Amino acid sequence: MGGQQPPALVTVTAGDGGRAASGRRRRGWPLVLTALALLAALTVAATALRDNGTLAAWEADAVETSDAAELRLGYFGNLTHGPALVGLENDYFAQELGDTALSAQVFNSGPTAVEAMNAGSIDAAFVGPNPAINSFVRSQGRSLAVVAGAASGGAQFVVRPAVTGPEDLAGRTVASPEFGGTQDVALRTWLAEQEYDADGEGDRAVAITPMANGQTISMLRQGRVDGAWLPQPWATRAVQDGARVLVDERDLWADGRYPTTVLVVRKDYLERHPETVEELVRGLQRSVDWLHEHEAEPELLASTLNEGLESAQTETLPEATVAGALEAVEWTTDPLADTYPQLLADGVAAGTTEEAPLEGLVDTTVLDRVRAGSEGGA
């Protein structure tokens, strides 16, 4: 047994005879060893290429792209989602998507919409930046990409009259739309800066309860919560109902600009259907342009946005409420990428996400093409 040779691959060709076959058997092992050496070299080369990103780039280039048969879009019934409301009501998205079937689904919070996206139930969504960051971090950059902005500003911390100032919040209960959402992170960050212990114990504790925006208005009215960090139109509705603005989030940013609503797309969808995503972004750009073009026409703005809210099964608003809410909002397709490191830091400090690199989260490739096309057309 100890001196037995390893089995060899024997190929027999008719007419060779035993001697010819034996000769080929002796030459087979050097060929096998050469093949193994070549395979090892290719493996080392592939590893090196993968480490420096070259192989990944080749693999990405090899992805076959096409127009999508359908696009499933998520959004909220909030005025900070105005471009989504206008794009759906004026058919801008459908017109740009052409033969791609469009369906839309309404969500109440960013984390819920992102969960649906991660589950493959929707392909793209208008959400706040913090849920997008959370998903990107947890998936190690594989889940989604921010392809454009939609709105800046439009979030405020409103309180009941009994709250006379920041120093009067100890022991009180305040609300945010959902744990880990953009307004929730902003609230927790601000409370920490005021040296309050969110959801903690002791003399500096402030309880935070998540609830739907519509419910928050009722709870404020009844005195069951003392304040809430709300997007528009809910902040303006609360003020019209007797609350007052304690903090306008624009005042917390150096230039007063921060992303409230952005457009995110599943990365696998973006990779396979970049043309379809570009069509969606073109529809978004048309919506933002329309909002700018008609900002001096409050009646038309209110009418169109209310039609969008009604389609989203959200209560419509008086023209004065729409006008008051829009004073706090800036429409822009700019995702304001420079703010994301601070948004991530705030989420880490608030305990809603973890520290991680954000390279690849904001991808403006499609947006840049849309903008270049718009400039060329002008």
TrEMBL record:
GO terms for cellular component: periplasmic space; plasma membrane. It comes from the Bacteria. Residues 1-24 are annotated as: Disordered. It is found in: Cell inner membrane; Periplasm. It holds the Pfam family NMT1_2. The chain crosses the membrane at residues 29-49. Keywords: Cell inner membrane, Cell membrane, Lipoprotein, Membrane, Signal, Transmembrane, Transmembrane helix, Transport. Belongs to the bacterial solute-binding protein SsuA/TauA family. This is NLPA lipoprotein. It comes from Kocuria rosea subsp. polaris. The lineage of its organism: Bacteria, Bacillati, Actinomycetota, Actinomycetes, Micrococcales.
